[in-house]
């Protein structure tokens, strides 16, 4: 008998967490960087530098999913 959590099996729960949970975490990180730039009064160039440096990993992670989708890699 397969164990379910909230009516989903392990694979479905993992897929849900990797799409919606990770997307929510990424949005929260962007909010934190924006709040940091606002509270530090970084200006336009400083804000750009903060977003570039602190969210570059997020861009790479998103690019990986786009490339996998484009090349049909599972």
TrEMBL record:
Pfam families per record: DUF2788
Keywords assigned by UniProt, alphabetized: Membrane, Transmembrane, Transmembrane helix
Transmembrane segments: 20-38, 45-67
Protein name: DUF2788 domain-containing protein
